[in-house]
Amino acid sequence: MENEYAWKVDFKSKHEQAEAAAAPHWQRAEQLNNEAAALEGQATNLRKGLVGSTDAAYRETVEAQIAALREAAEPLRLQARDAKAAGDRLYWPVFNLDLKNPNASEDESHDPDVLLAKYKKLLGEIEETENQLKSELAAALAHHFTAESA
Q1: Domain that holds residue 60
Q2: How many domains does the chain have?
Q3: Who is most buried in 73, 77, 100, 133, counting CB within 10 A?
Q4: Is the overall model pTM greater than 0.85, yes or no?
């Protein structure tokens, strides 16, 4: 039963929507990470090829190629991180259970003028209730005292 204190949330559909929205970003991140890994793998293979080489010019050329490959891989890693973060921003909020109750009464205003008007109205209602209580008590007590004195 839904009311102002309890309500249902269709988590399954929200989860599916969030996952569908995030998936292209995650796929892009995976693609970019794979491209960066391939470049880094080439750099590693070049580094392995240098083992035992004594030719300084060759070493310098290969070191430059290794540096260029690693330099090319770095922006891919950054783009992959950003793509994953974009997907995460779409996906993870679905687990935030701090949701507004759709059955709640009107939104509470924090405008001082509105709050002051409500406060004054409440004071008037309180005063009216006090006066009614006083009248009823006076009537009950008057009836009680008149019965005893007779």
Answers
A1: 1-105
A2: 2
A3: 73
A4: no
- Do 100 and 132 have their domain in common? no
Count CA atoms closer than 13 A to 31's CA, side-chain side.
7
Q: Do residues 45 and 12 touch, judged by C-beta distance below 8 A?
A: no
Contact 4, 103 (CB under 8 A): yes
Measured from the Cβ of residue 2, the count of other Cβ atoms closer than 10 Å reads: 10
State pLDDT tens for residues 36-55. 999 999 999 999 988 888 88
What is the SS3 assignment for 73? helix
**Are 64 and 138 in the same domain?**
no
Q: Is the pLDDT of residue 147 over 70?
A: no
